[in-house]
Write a structure and sequence with these properties.
alpha/beta; Rossmann fold; Ribosomal Protein S5, domain 2; nine-stranded mixed sheet; seven-stranded mixed sheet; globular; binds thymidine-5'-diphosphate; binds magnesium ion; DNA damage; Ribsml_uS5_D2-typ_fold_subgr; zinc; DNA repair
Amino acid sequence: MAKHTDTFVCQSCGAVYGKWAGRCEACGEWNTIQQEMSEAGPPGSLAGAAGGTAKTKGKKIEFTGLTGSTEEAPRLNTGNQEFDRACGGGLVPGSALLIGGDPGVGKSTLLLQIASGLAKGGASVAYISGEEATAQIRLRAKRLGVEKSPVHLASATSLRDILATLKAEKPDAVIIDSIQTLWSDALPAAPGTVTQVRACAQELVRFAKSSGCIVLLVGHVTKDGQIAGPRVVEHMVDAVMYFESEQGRDFRILRAVKNRFGAAHEIGVFEMAGNGLREVANPSELFLTGGDTAVSGAAVFAGIEGTRPVLVEIQALVSPSTLATPRRAVVGWDSARLSMLLAVLDARAGLDFGRNDVFLNVAGGLRIAEPAADLAAAAALCSSLFDSPLPRDRVVFGEVALSGAVRPVNQTEARLKEAKKLGFSGALAPAGAQSGTLKVVEAETLRELVRWAR
Ligand code: TYD
Ligand code: MG
């Protein structure tokens, strides 16, 4: 018999304690620690049913060399280009993916469309929901116009039943919506607890590896933006994608935060419509506000999201402050980065923002993490400070160093090409970015930027 031990597990981060406490020391959350009975050893596998085999001789494992057979199963295309791009060019057989997102963002909708796409491509796909009845899924499929696709639907939450069915049916891909609704009867813990989520994910990942089936797990996200349940699920799977939306907007971004088989930070952009998610092949159209009248404080940044160039407008507002400590507010960018940029503009270009409130906003609700956005943010700030509009047909990119120097960034050519494609006629860019694509004004330091923006 496996030995049962009582442990206390934080339901927010998965930290394990020997005794109860009111506050989790690992994540700082209050009242999240619950008593759970757990079996010593990996759940339901070595310690459980297979316990008897320990007495028999261990089976020798086979090693194989790098030069063995390399017949690689091709990636499975879902027919949805944005989704395929976000996973690095299609789904790898035998891989497990975790797709997280807030409730209502459209995870079930996306995955039903993906299931239908895979089924249309000839793959056998199972969609197992623990949240909706099959009739409800059918209703949704009808709304999405995919009710004719040969997708196998089931409504189930018992891991044992699900695995037995999958082993018998052997589908090419299975979608589990969601991992938080599953429960394994090998464990005494309640569904949705860290112990259950972890154990169920582990079993499903093991099934994916041993059978070659693609397992897509849906995960809910907690209020602080992490996948509910332990972070350890993120380490088990091959790829973690977040499905995000900005409040009050129709577009959704599928962002790969980890991918063993492709580039991380790759994004797929969708728009939620009445009949499901529409692919947005040209996301720049969402992030440029358009309009021909030039206003001060707006600069177009030529950025790279994953491997794809995306143009986005950066807006700044600099206005005299009535407060002793002027306000600094940022949406879509790093606030520490803004403070740094303001200090550099002050020290190296002699621009004083000290008595002004400063607001910075990335249009369209995109979040930018690239240092290459520095110069565009600086351009927007200067333009607002001088109350002088920037030329509307120019893009800006470049990293700003503490010395006030403008440093080169990667993928210059891709940025310029995208700008040209969207009808821009010039760029302000780091020295050396000259190319045949667009007319480039080179900025070596912030001084050139200030001269350009005045
Ligand atoms: P859903 O996929 O159920 O979200 P999740 O599984 O992430 O919780 O999406 C629910 C939202 O999407 C709901 O607010 C309605 C909206 N929606 C549409 O706008 N159009 C559609 O065609 C569908 C199916 C849903
Ligand atoms: Mg759902």
